[in-house]
């Protein structure tokens, strides 16, 4: 994975995006499963994240897109729903990259 430190720092420079990452770390503590979906493996539905953020779906989707481009989260589409999970492997790689560079 090619690290783009600027994109990662941009993604992490917003309190709401940091909150999303925090919630996705332990989704069962912050969300009720959507239609019986296993939140650990499939993820959390965008509508649940939007509701918890108390903002429009377009703003929440924009935040999620920024996190995805930075490599911090991944998506899974099931029917008409999009689910989000943290990309723990990439987060570890990013941590290792920064610890070796900074």
From TrEMBL:
Record-annotated HTH arsR-type domain positions: 1-102
Pfam families tied to this protein: HTH_5 (PF01022)
Keyword Nucleotidyltransferase listed: no
Alphabetically ordered keywords of this record: DNA-binding, Transcription, Transcription regulation
Gene Ontology MF, one: DNA-binding transcription factor activity
InterPro entries the UniProt entry points to: ArsR-like_HTH, HTH_ArsR_DNA-bd_dom, HTH_MetalResp_TranReg, WH-like_DNA-bd_sf, WH_DNA-bd_sf
Name used for this protein in its record: Probable transcriptional regulator
Species annotation: Brevibacillus brevis (strain 47 / JCM 6285 / NBRC 100599)
């Amino acid at each position: 994975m090619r690290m783009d430190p600027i994109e990662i720092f941009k993604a992490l420079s917003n309190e709401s995006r940091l909150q999303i990452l925090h919630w996705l770390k332990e989704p069962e503590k912050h969300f009720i499963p959507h239609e019986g979906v296993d939140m650990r493996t499939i993820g959390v539905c965008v509508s649940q994240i939007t509701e918890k953020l108390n903002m429009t779906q377009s703003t929440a989707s924009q935040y999620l897109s920024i996190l995805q481009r930075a490599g911090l989260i991944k998506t899974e589409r099931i029917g008409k729903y999009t689910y989000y999970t943290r990309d723990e492997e990439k987060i570890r790689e990013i941590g290792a990259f920064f610890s070796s560079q900074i």
